[in-house]
Amino acid sequence: MTERRRQQDRTRATRQVLISTARRLFAQRGFAAVPAEEIVAEAGLTRGALRHHFGDKRELFRAVFEEQERDITDRVAAALADADGSWSAATKGLSAFLDACEDPEVIRIALTDAPAVLGWAEWRAIEARHGLGLVIAGLDQAMAEGILVRQPADVVGHLLLSAAIEAALLIAQAPDPRAARVEAEQALLALLGGLRTPSE
Q1: How far apart are CA 187 and CA 149, in angstroms?
Q2: SS in 3 state form for the chain?
Q3: Which of 71, 82, 99, 196 has the fewest Cβ atoms surrounding its Cβ within 10 A?
Q4: Rounded to an integer, what distance in angstroms lies between the CA atom of residue 53 and that of residue 7?
């Protein structure tokens, strides 16, 4: 192994230790309650390592959020892989997304802290970057199969993803998250059902 490759491996390992440690601490107590000094101490690193790899705690949080979004997208993609047809894929994908949004870690990091730490526009851009492609691909397939009325898939995809994110926020903030989840899922399925072709 070359020295350059060893250095790249060390860099990746250091970044991942910082992300994993920060993710655990942010999930437990939230961004504001976790000082950067605690993150590096827990990770067994120095403040200089944090500065070198991320610049500051906010950028480390951004990396944590990006990793969490990839994990959620992977969960939804796994649900889609088990679906029998595009309508089943849509309903299973929606259910998997809402399942993920009931996870306390997701509630804390993605739905509570991310909008405040990153700002609304950046938060929504990251959400869209990870989930929008799956939504649009599913819509394209359903429209090609005649399950859904032909519409601009990118526009409908943005609207459906926005509705799902709003539903997730409602669930996260509800006094009874389980009841809110049932109501939100029913409403989202009704919205999606309104896009079905009349023969469906």
Answers
A1: 19
A2: CCHHHHHHHHHHHHHHHHHHHHHHHHHHHCCCCCCHHHHHHHHCCCHHHHHHHCCCHHHHHHHHHHHHHHHHHHHHHHHHHCCCCHHHHHHHHHHHHHHHHCCHHHHHHHHHHHHHHHCHHHHHHHHHHHHHHHHHHHHHHHHHCCCECCCCHHHHHHHHHHHHHHHHHHHHHCCCHHHHHHHHHHHHHHHHHCCECCCC
A3: 82
A4: 13
Rounded-to-integer distance, Cα 125 and Cα 121, Å: 6
pLDDT tens, the chain, 200 aa long: 687 777 777 888 999 999 999 999 999 999 999 999 999 999 999 999 999 999 999 999 999 999 999 999 999 999 888 888 888 888 888 999 988 888 999 999 999 999 999 999 999 899 889 988 888 888 898 999 999 999 999 999 999 989 999 999 998 889 998 899 999 999 999 999 999 998 74
| Pairwise CA distance, residues 159 & 154, whole Å | 9
Residue 106 and residue 178: Cα distance in Å, rounded? 15
Q: How far apart are alpha carbons 59 and 94 in whole angstroms? A: 29
Q: Which two tokens stand for residue 2?
A: 């070359």
Instruction: Give CA–CA dist 106/114, Å, rounded.
Output: 10
Name residues whose C-beta falls within 8 Å of residue 15's C-beta, 6 or more positions apart in sequence: 53, 54, 63
